[in-house]
Amino acid sequence: MQALLVFLAIAALSLLASSPALDPSRFPSLARLAASGFLFLLFGVVLGPSVVGALSVEDLGHLRPVMALGLGTAGVILGLNLEPRLLRLLPRPVYAAALAHSGTAFLFVTVPLAAPLLLTSHPSLHAAVGAASLLGGAASLSSGHFAVLAYRAGRMDRARGLGVALLTMLDDAVGLAVLAVALMLSAAPSAGEGLGLVCLAVLLGILCGALLAFLTHAMNDPAELATVTLGMVALVGGAAAYLRVSALLAGVACGATLALVGGRTVERVARALGRVERPVFLVLVFLVGCGVYTRDWAAWALVPGFVGLRFLGKVLGGRIAQRMASGVLELPPRVGYALIAQGGLALCLVAEYQFLVPGGLARRVLDVVVVGAVVNELLAGPAFRQVLTPMKPRLAPAAVDDVEVAT
Amino acid sequence: MKGAVTRLLLLMVLLAIISRAQVLRADSGTSVTLAAGALLLCGLFAGKVAKGFGLPRLTGYLLVGVAVGPYALGFIPGEGVKGLDLVKGLAVSLIALVAGTELRLGLIRRVGARVALLCAAVCAVTFAVCFGATLALKPVLPFLTPLTMPQALAVSALMSTVVVSFSPTVTIAIVQETSARGSFTEFLMALVIIGDLLVMVAFALAAGMTRASFGGGFDIAGLLSGVGWELFGSVVVGGVLAVAMLVYMRGVKRELPLFLVGLSFAAAEGGTRLHLSPLLVSLAAGALIVNLDEREGERIHHAIQRAGLPVFALFFAAAGAGLKLDALMTVGPAALLLVVLRGLAIWFACRRFAPTHDPRLKEYLWMGLISQAGVTFGLAALVSRTFPTFGPQVEVLIVAMITAHELVGPVLTRRALTASGEVRTDEAPGTA
Lengths: 407, 432
Prior knowledge:
A: mainly alpha; B: mainly alpha; 18 helices; Cation:proton antiporter (chain B); Na+/solute_symporter_sf (chain B); transmembrane helix (chain B); membrane (chain B); Cation/H_exchanger_TM (chain B)
């Protein structure tokens, strides 16, 4: 019945999100939240155990398989985007620039917030470091959807829009690496054991990715291809959840392996996954929202610090990135303001962390990042205007907010 | 064929590695998603292997489910398979929706009376034979031995009612797989559907009698209202669903497979909660749609056919994984005797009472009536829940029978359709 409730809620929200009631000209913030999927996040918070209670903690426990499926799917899609040929073509300054903006935000958030986490939660030192680094990891991520929408609508030069999008894509690697480190520190009694679990997740993903490449090799029937793809995504996410290792990391390893060895199949698999990407993402963010505990005042107290420090980190990191990538990558002036939107991967990271590291600290991290992500999404619109230089629009301005984005 | 075998073996090796790796962890996490992915993939390739051997794909789905499931190799934990009940409900609803779209008014007018008469005859003969056999086995069946004669009569009647039931899911899946079309196929499908409706009514009556024989009192009003709610309530809810679907299909016109999956999911879950028959709800919805708007009925048929492959593969592989092989061992002889007697009774009834205008009905129809699956499982579970003193043992016996029927039934159904000459193609892309 819980699953039915979730389904009905998602269906209702999907209709709401696509209805004229959310007219971007009348409710720009709400329309932006709907387009990025974060409206579902808020709806999850409201329906979750700590507000209305339509879904209890026990219900959320029953919905863990759905969460594992969502994290696995997100991971595989991320991994498939790691196009080896493209990555090899990128010059070093681009990597350095991506690392600069994400690394600065990471440090700006991790270092100052480690102390309050340690003091308010009384965990062990390495657990606090793990939690703080995950907050930093979530802060390091950015979403390039504003840039993509802007260049599609002709409000930004295409090269600059793609430059921002490229930077935000590369910082995903930082977030995933931080998740791996945080899990090493917190998901097992010792760091060595934690490392073993991370390696197990990656190994599982590599095996599944190689097998998926073999299974789909020379498969021509689209229905069969879609079935095998979905089956393998469920298998990799499910196996990771069963072994209590990271479904997200296993998924990324699976997708990356497929991208490496899959050849012509990769595109067809990506297309098959593309059809389920948005519904899966919406269900996932809804469930992440349900996991928020709104009565944790210490988490609320951390949110301004998280948002403010991240903002500063992104603005400063953006400046450094611009300097590093000058002459190689075309970036807009004040690029840091284009990196304020946080995106869905940050939610995946904290959901995975809470999945594998039970306890109040992981929940607090989730609360801070979820609330922070919504605030950042609302801040991102006005911040992005600082980046835009006046240009002649190539498309009708109304098209700007009509485009749906998944993350 | 060779490629499918290699792929299946590789998948099983991966599952073996995962189940071995689990030993490293002190406690495991949720296994439902693992079960879903593994059964879907294994089912798909096992279906291809089965096809290579000239068997229905469905048999491949079932057999691989048995093999990797908790009662054989144990690669998939029992909790994972149990957690897929939701998927099973969804599959039954989708299958019933397709079956409903086959029930056109013209067909019902044409063969309705003949099907109903033959169905009543087959059910009556099979019931009589199984009832007699069960009663005769009273001294050796542990759950019947301690009962008084009236109680034994009631329990035998209850069990025989369940044993009579057919499997619309298997029949429809095989019809989809083979793309069979024609009067024989129509007759067979109508018969299994009407047969299950009869069984549902008979089951409610037999359960009431059994309750009375154990001192619970014979509540005729309660009995009739229960049966009435299940039958008419299901039809009414099905009608509402049909209207919702037609409105959506005429108004929205996009993402139809996704919408149908969602609605079937709601029908399965909601129907169970409201004590309705999800099968009947979806059946009524499908029938109403096709009779109100034939073009939209066809659209539903094709949309489900496109989404059918993963649903069927997962449903039947999960059904296979849930088959308790140990039950087959403990009550094997009695179950096998009942399986043989049921088969003989169905064969005899078809030979004796099938309409004479089509000789194929007398010859091959019985083969299409052997399968048992979802409805029988559901009724057996209901017996177990309603009568905790003897119900669980009855369930074990019936599940053992289902195991045997699941393994031979699909093969026989396909043989019946092939022998009737109505199989159009052996490989419809994207179908079960």
